[in-house]
Amino acid sequence: MLGVNPNATLDEIKSAYRHLALKFHPDRNPGNNAAEEEFKRVSEAYQVLSDPEKRKLYDLYGPDGLNGFNVGGFGGFEDIFSSFGDIFEDFFSFGRRRDRATRAQSGADLRSVVTLTLEEVLNGVDKEITVDRRVLCQRCEGEGVEPGTKPQTCSNCGGRGQVSQHRGMLRVFTSCPVCRGAGSFVPHPCETCGGAGMIREKRQMQVRIPPGVDNGTRLRLRGEGEAGRFGGPQGDLYIEVQTAPHPFLSRRGHDLLYRTELSFVEAALGWDITVPTLNGDASCTIPPGTQSGAVFSLAGEGLPHLNSKKRGDLLVEVSLKTPTNLTVRQEELLREFLASEGPEPSLD
Q1: pTM, full prediction
Q2: Cα-based distances in Å from 221 to 67, 115, 229, 238
Q3: Residue where a domain stops, chosen among 243, 278, 313
Q4: Mean pLDDT of the chain
Q5: What range does the domain containing 207 cover?
Q6: Residue spans of alpha helices (H) in 68-170
Q7: Claim to verify: residue 214 and residue 260 sit in the same structural domain
Q8: How many domains is the chain built from?
Q9: Who contacts 188 (Cβ-Cβ below 8 Å, separation ≥6)?
Q10: N or C, which end of the chain is more exposed by having fewer CB within 10 Å?
Q11: Can you give the CATH number for the domain in which 139 is found?
């Protein structure tokens, strides 16, 4: 009936049943009696093969081995649902709610942004950060009730957290409107947390930022996020690194860029300039005939690679500035220079 071989695993049996149950589900086949009967048959097959004892007897003796067991006998979809509520909840995302409110819940992850100077990126730094997070209330130990009291079962849903309505042959489950799906209510909320089970705290901590972190790097601190509920693990804290603007250097990955202006005379004749670096001033020789936009490199004067002794370079980008407000003598010299270059080439 399920189309699986005798050696099929329980997962394979579940998968086959899921496929056929979806195919013959009464909600997908309204008014189709044949589909409903087929739905009953595959559900009976799953009832046998998902039970280790029944499956063993069926393998040894066939259908006769199941005599004495209450196999099948489903009156309709509702009976099948009541028998396989858990698997229907997994397959179709609805069904009986069982203690969902008290299942372990992981704490939320948090994010904090740390801004570093280039000098801090170069050397690494210990940063003090403040984290605003929720932690378990110590008074009620996260239960949300006053010490000495207990939550009470919701009388509207009987503690299931869900109520059902009949729509034709389909039984639809929705969250209980009284307890909002919790299955219980708190008659005496904790005075400290107001029944939330959590309170907010500001925690200061030291975070070690290693040298060479990239802009946008995320550092993960396990267990430093918000507290979990009902025994769930604490969330994580993610530290996102940003680089602050620098007065005269800009970052290009692990390289640094320094822009400088030269007069056309300095660029033409060649010049020695002083370049500020993160380790102090350095000398850079500009060769004669340098053009605007030329880039020169000071090896190893950039930022370190993470977890490595390798460092980037300091790039020196040259731009030429055109002189303004020339004196008469300066203009005469420039005209003499222009004349010395000879006549302009003819366009003919």
Answers
A1: 0.58
A2: 59, 17, 19, 6
A3: 243
A4: 83
A5: 110-151+186-243
A6: 77-83, 85-92, 118-123
A7: no
A8: 3
A9: 145, 146, 149
A10: C
A11: 2.60.260.20
